[in-house]
Write a structure and sequence with these properties.
The protein is α/β, with parallel strands linked by helices. The protein has eleven helices and 13 strands. Helix content is about 45%, strand content about 15%. It is globular. The N and C termini lie far apart (about 40 Å).
């Protein structure tokens, strides 16, 4: 198939593109290579993809309506995996317009491209952040997600609503994936594993919010990619549901205490962490926990990589990539 992967210079997008290319698909990767975090890492990911003859990279912003329309018209994609957009809960508190432009305007441009060019299936990134301050555990796709605690979360909930409307009105098959704390090799420098590792190796204190009383459903990147690829291959049809629309959690279904995660990093690095205990940050939540049974029932797979194993693989990559 010919598949558009947006956010192809990003953590999940690049890993997904590599998996698709390895199995023989043709991939067009789109990314704006913005400076939200170090573009050098993004460019390194793109170079890995560019080693494959069936990959083409397009540098473009999702919010560029005319350019997006031209891309869809020219390429005639079979399927679209939309992993682009502005990430980060904390950044949304200071830069809301970046989220409106990329996550709302950009998503409409993706939906319109799929609608007008008979794309067989749109799979897009949602987030565990849509669950907001929910206290019922584990989080299920049937739970209410009407109280986001950050603009980032609100844009992801909006994406799910927008996708449903296109599935209902125009028959565009869409599947949203609520990712839970993705980590692993080639990860994002703004997330805890990267931040902690860099600080620990430099002998600096790590910032531990909510005084360490946090739990996260850490989900290893290879499990995420396996789920994404299986989902893009299985298209919901109107005969199975009122609209060809689905939303799934993708999480490890085993929340881990933040202090335990730090302990795994200490073991893998051979370094003791200096902890600066701080109060909860605005927009953050104390715990995430995915109920992944619906995903397993749909594609016969649910993430299960143990955190200790995933952390070791991340640390091995980090030491190799940064030569430390």
């Amino acid at each position: 198939m010919k598949i558009l992967v947006t956010g192809s210079a990003g953590f999940i997008g690049a890993a997904t593109g590599l998996q698709l290319l390895a199995r023989g698909d043709s991939v067009v990767g789109l990314d704006n290579l913005n400076a939200y975090y170090d573009p050098v890492l993004k460019q390194s990911r793109v170079r890995r993809l560019a080693q494959h003859p069936h990959f083409r990279f397009v540098q473009m912003g999702l919010e560029d309506r005319a350019a997006m329309a031209d891309l869809f018209a020219a390429e005639k994609f079979d399927r679209v995996i939309h992993l682009g957009g502005q990430a980060g809960v904390r950044y949304s508190l200071q830069n809301p317009h970046a989220y409106v432009d990329s996550n709302l305007v950009g998503f409409v441009n993706v939906l319109e491209g799929c609608r007008h060019h008979a794309v067989q299936h749109l799979v897009y990134a949602s987030s565990s952040s849509v669950y907001g301050g929910n206290t019922k555990m584990p989080f299920s796709e049937t739970d209410s997600v009407d109280h986001p605690v950050s603009l980032y979360a609100a844009t992801k909930k909006a994406n799910e609503l927008m996708a449903y409307s296109y599935s209902h009105l125009y028959g565009v098959p869409t599947t949203g994936l609520r990712f839970f704390t993705v980590y692993g090799p080639w990860g994002r420098p703004d997330m805890a594993p990267f931040l902690f590792t860099r600080a620990m190796l430099a002998g600096e204190a790590i910032k531990v919010f909510n005084y360490g009383d946090m739990r996260r459903d850490f989900t290893y990147i290879d499990d995420i990619v396996e789920a994404v690829v299986r989902v893009v291959d299985k298209v919901a049809t109107p005969a199975e549901t009122a609209a060809p629309y689905r939303v799934f959690n993708i999480g490890n279904n085993q929340p881990v205490a933040l202090l335990e995660f730090i302990g795994c990093l200490e073991s893998a690095l051979g370094v003791r962490a200096i902890k600066e205990l701080l109060p909860m940050q605005d927009g953050d939540v104390p715990a995430t926990f995915a109920d992944a049974r619906a995903l397993d029932a749909w594609v016969g797979f649910a993430p299960a990589t143990p955190v200790r194993q995933g952390v070791q693989q991340f640390v091995d990559w980090y030491r190799s990539y940064f030569a430390v």
